[in-house]
């Protein structure tokens, strides 16, 4: 079974079925072992036609290590499939409480430094 429990990481998210580019990316929470962000592009060419699909989202380290590759299906001479995979580390989600704690800590230290210098 796949573990989809949120793990505190986030990645850009987008799927386009007919383009190599996503014009608008949302954000998605990663789950389980997903620790990387993936940019996956699949281009299928047959004769004079070309179809490109693009996906952004979360991925496991194993998927990222699979890397890019080209495939020519058996028995087809004019068809090729190219899959490009680019990965980066996912971003940690910081909650508002965490941001408030950091802001309070910084403010406290600034006040401490200010009064120490007087």
Automatic annotation (TrEMBL):
Keywords attached to this entry: Secreted
Main subcellular location: secreted
GO cellular component, one term: extracellular region
Compartment annotation: Secreted
InterPro entries documented for this protein: CNF-like_PLA2_Inhibitor (IPR050918), Snake_toxin-like_sf (IPR045860)
SUPFAM superfamilies, alphabetized: Snake toxin-like (SSF57302)
The keyword Secreted is assigned to this record: yes
Domain of life: Eukaryota
Protein name in the entry: UPAR/Ly6 domain-containing protein
Lineage start: Eukaryota, Metazoa, Chordata, Craniata, Vertebrata
């Amino acid at each position: 079974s796949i573990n989809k429990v949120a793990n505190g990481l986030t990645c850009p998210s987008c799927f386009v079925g007919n383009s190599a580019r996503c014009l608008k990316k949302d954000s998605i929470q990663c789950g389980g072992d997903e620790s990387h962000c993936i940019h996956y592009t699949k281009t299928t060419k047959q004769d004079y036609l070309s179809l490109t699909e693009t996906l952004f989202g979360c991925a496991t380290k194993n998927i990222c290590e699979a890397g890019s590759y080209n495939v020519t299906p058996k028995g087809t001479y004019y068809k090729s499939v190219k899959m490009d995979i680019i990965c980066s580390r996912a971003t940690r989600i910081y909650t508002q409480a965490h941001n408030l704690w950091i802001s309070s800590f910084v403010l406290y230290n600034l006040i401490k430094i200010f009064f120490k210098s007087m």
